[in-house]
Amino acid sequence: MQRVVLVQPSVYGFDNQCLLDALAELGDSARGVAVAPRDVSEAQLKVWHAAGVRAIRVNLQSSGNEDVASACNELSYWSERVCHLGWSIQLYMAYPVLQAVSTHLSRLPGSFVLDHFAMVPFSAAASQDDGLLLRLAESGRIFVKLSAPYRLADAQWARAWARHLVSHAPHGILWGSDWPHTARDAGVPALEPSQFRTVPTQTIQQDMGHWLMDDDEQQQVLVKNPARLFGWASG
Question: What is the per-residue pLDDT across 102-111, written as a single tens digit (0 to 9) for each?
């Protein structure tokens, strides 16, 4: 890989030091997605920007927060805080919450990434729902990330759903490995580690081959889209 995007994992909370150390070691070949408290200063955001951070992660799913008003508030707040930096906002939320906030989301400035297939449930995927994800992906500002099918209730349909999105909106799709495949054991607090999932590299490669079926799709999703979103000069 010539370029990578590193995402702050939930278990580290607001402590982004590991992310920042990795960005310092990797240099311009890497970009970061940080997690920040609401009271993070503008000066700190600029320090992170200089270090290679290009997005903020808003994680409602890990805490089980499905309050729509809270989600709208978070979206508005972080859009105002980071849009002027050219950053995107990565969203990890339950699909019903996304459905409820989609209109609000579409009206906000900036770019957004919907993590882990946007957590779309099997029932919605089987019927293509009402086309919500496709409309969002076609907007040019909202990206669906194909990653971690094992986080969904039923991963068997992931190939067909990925093909549906890539074939209709290739400019609105990203890919992520979800390495090192973090998990949350039952009863373990949010900031305490659990055992990683065991996901063979071959499985990840097979998924990519099923989801991105030719050179053009791979170039668009793996190179051009992240280059545009995370601030590299070109794909």
Answer: 999 999 999 9
